[in-house]
Input
Amino acid sequence: MTGEIGLLALCLALALAIVQTLSGLSGARVAGSLSRGIATSSATGQFVFVALAFGALIYASVTDDFSIANVAENSHTLKPLIYKISGVWGNHEGSMLLWVFVLSVYSAAIAFLKRGSDRLTSAALGVQGLVAVAFIVFILFTSNPFVRLDPAPFEGNGLNPLLQDFGLAVHPPMLYTGYVGLSAAFAYAAAALIVRERDWARAARPFMLAAWIALTLGIALGSWWAYYELGWGGFWFWDPVENASLMPWLVATALLHSALATERTGAFRTWTLLLAIAGFSLSLIGTFLVRSGVLTSVHAFASDPTRGTYILFLIFGAIGGALALFAWRAPSLEEGASFEPVSRETALLLNNVFLTASAATVFVGTLYPLALDTFTGTKISVGPPFYAATFAPFFFAMLILVPFGPRLGWHRGNLRAALRTLYPALGAALLAFALILAFTTPRSLFGAAAFAVAAWLIASSAIDFWTRGWRGASPASVASMLGHAGLAVTLIGIAGTTLWRSEALEVLGPHDSMYVGGYELRLDDVVGVKGPNYDAARAIVTVKRNGETIAVMHPERRVFPAERQETVETAIRTTIFTDLYLALGDRRDATHWILRAYVNPLAPFIWLGGLVMALGGLAALWSRMRKPRAVPDAMAAPAE
Amino acid sequence: MTPKKRRRFAFAAAILLASAGAAALTLYALKDNVLYFYSPSDVAAKHVQPGIAFRIGGLVAMHSVTRGPGADVHFAVSDGKLSVPVIYHGVLPALFREGQGVVALGALEPSGTFRATEVLAKHDERYMPPEVVDALKRSGRWKENQ
Output
């Protein structure tokens, strides 16, 4: 029954999404409130039914209902409960259902919060409904998660063990909350074009912020997972799938900043619209890259060409439709007041130029190899050197300019006054540069520059806080301080790990030792351990520093018999300032194993920075929710 | 120029400048920083020079894997027609097996041995790297439902 209930609920959700689209769009034109009421209630109903369908699939997975093909292919009776639940979105069909579920949550939130004018809300619901229709149809016709198996097998195939992990249980919902949240910004942008509404950015802002926070955390979680689970000691591989989430993040960051100006002064009105469209388009392109099987990755579940083709059409429809609407209506939205070359608007403009340019380089690096393969058959891949030469310069240039933004007034700023408050930060940056260059090896100009920029950002945020004091700091100013400082913390982590990582790889027998970065690692034994659904070889490694034992670590290799797969379970000892990272390699003979060890200085800062950035986002969200119709607040006292 | 026009102009100029910069950097980087993918037959046909980094893919040839000294591993990558010897110092992926698909990153030594800096195997039993499938198809050794 569960499967039928789920399928029925999904069909009803589709019907309601169609109603939502029609009533929402007609509510945008007509003065009457009837169709707006219908749009609101159908958005709520759609949320209920999608939740029901999603719940049905989770229930089937938890109760090991192997008569449902999706559960049989991806679950197993021995799998721990949490992975039975998270396994629901660890496969193509289930993850698309999660996508639609998150979409319906945003639709319900738009209907419930009713931000902006009635006509704007109604049109936004209509656009959200249209997106929902496209995706529910996609699920029903190409990726139905409720297909039955007859006869039902006694046991399921199990879930890819790499995905049986807490980080990856949380990563997809978080990332989707971000991806799909950009659909709300997109819906508001399209709605603004439809009803010719100028003040849409204020209405859409909480959704942009929610999407950005979730995207930030989702990317951080994904990178953290790759770090501890893959056993390669790296945190970012410029893999197309990672890039697929980075591009929307870059554009969403640009959008947040540009919308700030649009909201306050009306500047960049059309540009902000374009960014909202681009952000969601990149989410769709990301979904296509990840879900169509064109890429080699743990994320590429499916390689059914009809799915890729459908999503491709969906992308062309969404982008083409939105851009056509933009070309038709955008010229009629007048721009706001003008601004001087030295002003916060100019700072935000530069922010946007650098962010979109860096997003463009990632876009080329991700899609060029695919295009080349499709059209010429030549297979290439681009790796870190490409991004170091293209992405890094833009991003770096932007970071240097960051502290000026909050210090310049709207319309006209005073550069000299801004600089004056920044002298201590400049001092901190020069000091960091000199110290790193003088006292650390290997000597690296780039590395020292990275630390200097980080010090520059953190010091400028600290000065900002210092001058405002606890009482004077508005949530919005705290948001910008935390956001910018978080970026610096991540930069410190990246620079530290990249510069000072040490690495060793050796074949060890019983009681053999190896040395890495000042640590002595002694392999005491490798023992067999039985887990709930795996058998593990667990190494017992004694860690010594200066002759004293400081820890015993247990890196493992796990064999999952149901899935016929093996995973590496790393052991990481962290002091926040440095990670000692052990991965057990393959067995050489009865008593000898390969042990790989890394010392990654400052690595935890990478994800800590993501957390700080997300906190900044939350502060901004809080300032919005507290004052729903915010009048111009003290985002920063113009330094005049 | 009116302030509005001036602003528009500045905006367009900034975007244009950034795009030009991005395009120049990208083209420059694409020239030097891409890795080509070759099958063992490609390696022979294209006379790939030693020292040039590329990715090689195919199946791990049967009975070709020998281990040692130390953490070194020797094996051969084959596309059914030709094979290339590979030497790798490091931890092999969990799913590395003889007869299974593999992609390695590295460069040829003057002796013709491929020194790998990174070895990737397929992620699970049901999955084959698309490049490997393609290489096998081109050498005529690909069987469906392999």
Remarks:
- Chain A touches chain B through 53 residues (CB under 8 Å).
- Confidence is low (pLDDT under 50) at residues 297-302, 628-640 of chain A.
- The longest strand of chain A covers residues 519-530.
